[in-house]
Amino acid sequence: MAVREGLNCTVLYRPGQRDRDKEKKKKESILDLSKYIDKTIRVKFQGGREASGILKGFDPLLNLVLDGTIEYVRDPDDQYKLTEDTRQLGLVVCRGTSVVLICPQDGMEAIPNPFIQQQDG
Question: Which residues form the Sm domain (predicted)?
Answer without folding.
Answer: 28-108
